[in-house]
Amino acid sequence: MNLAEIEKPLSPWRRFAVRLVLCYVAIFCVDLLGDVISFTFHLFSAPRWLQTPFSSLFWVRLVPGVAKHVLRLGTVKLSIWGSGDTLYDWVQMLCRAVLAFLGALVWTSVDHGRRRTVVLHAWLRVAVRGLLAAQMFAYGLDKVFPMQFREMTVERMLVPMAAKTPMGVLWDFMAASTGYTIFTGLVEVLAGVLLLVPAWTTLGALIAMAAMTNIVALNFFYDIPVKNGSSHLLLLTLVLLAPVMQRLVQFFLLNRDVPAEPRLVLSGSKQIRQTMLWAPVVLCGVVVLAGCISAHQHFRKRDQARLTQSKFAGAWDVSQFVVADTSKPLFTDTLTKDMKIPEWGTAWRRVVFEEHDSAEIELGDGSFDHVHVEEENGTLILTDQGDLRWKCVLRTRRQGSDGLNMEGTVNGNGVQITLRPVDESQFLLTKRTFHWVNEW
User: DSSP string of 261-324?
Assistant: First the structure.
């Protein structure tokens, strides 16, 4: 179908609504392209300035000013690798919507035809297909190579359910089943592959919409701080499906015959058509390459950590904790205040040595303190980044075949600690395997 064949008019309000959506999506796609490029540079460990999205150079001047002088919200700051639901992100969304509204208003006032609307939408579909596919590949590969939710460690299993955040519960749920995590990743990768083929765009968009609907629901109901970004990706799937929605209703709900979808020829130039076809493929190819390199680096680092792990690796229950002077605190005032430790909760309950240079100390009140570990000739030196004045120096000595004694000082106070290894076979979450037959 050629552009000259587009004759069906739109009412003024519908024309404005369509153009408003197109303007908003176009602005978001520019931002998303910057995010994809910067994230790819991040995976390739490029210089820091290359890891900053190019569109942020505009937004960092507009958003803080709008937040401070228009909305009276005070100072807001851009967080590139942190939460995606900061006040900055929501103000940016508002600014994007206002700019889209103004753009659609000007466009509608000077152009009353339909041709340019169809042209922009057709070109925008190419960008949306490529960028949405890139996001599907990025998130999908993070699950196919299980990196996003990390391994289900002893430390994570020992944290009581009531002490976990909703996000922590969801992360543990996904980490508990590597197979299910890979399955969800494959669904996202499949959507990305289908989106790269113009003839399969509708099927790819349907699968992407199903995957993103589930992700958006999880993000909202488990308070995952990417509600803003995931909702926009769901919007992109709807933009791809909007032109064929009536045909889908006719086919799936009304059981009627549907003719083949007409193809819109945007350019008579073969070179331009080839560029439109291959540009999304190249973009996604770079994202896939970066994802594979990131996975290789992740698993190599994990294997190296396992080779250099502490000889005390594992979880240890504290069977005896004797303090020389109970009037002296075991933690500095700063740590006590930051971790909100009650006076009765400073005694150690459990110690978990996960990596060669770190450990988790579970205290009597159920809270955990992450500490840095150095080992010198059987002596452990523990420090806390929260307050470097806090220090533990503990001499270790094996007691029998499975016991461990520690003697030394904790925050300058003499202590004697007796540890017993936790029986990890009791953790059914990781020890129970798949069963075809389950008798209850």
Answer: PPPP---S-HHHHHHHHHHHHHHHHHHHHHHHHHHHHHHHHHHHHHHT--TT-EEEEEEEEEES
The span from the CA of 171 to the CA of 224, in Å, is 10
Query: How many whole angstroms separate alpha carbon 167 and alpha carbon 369?
Result: 19
CATH superfamily of 314-426: Calycin beta-barrel core domain (2.40.128.20)
Strand partners, 371: 359
* Residues 414, 325 contacting (CB under 8 angstroms): yes
* φ, ψ of residue 146 in degrees (nearest 5): -55, 95
Tokens matching residue 105: 């208003």
CA distance 406 to 414: 11
Tens digit of each residue's pLDDT (9 = 90 or more) over 48-73: 777 778 888 899 999 999 999 999 99
Tokens of 108: 């509608």
Domain(s) labelled CATH 2.40.128.20 in the chain stretch across 314-426
Give dist(CA 116, CA 198) in Å, integer.
Answer: 21
Q: What percent of the chain has pLDDT over 90?
A: 49
Q: Is 194 in contact with 204 (CB distance < 8 Å)?
A: yes
Q: How confident is the model at residue 3 (pLDDT cuts 50, 70, 90)?
A: very low
Q: What is the pTM of this model?
A: 0.87
pLDDT reading at 318 higher than 50: yes
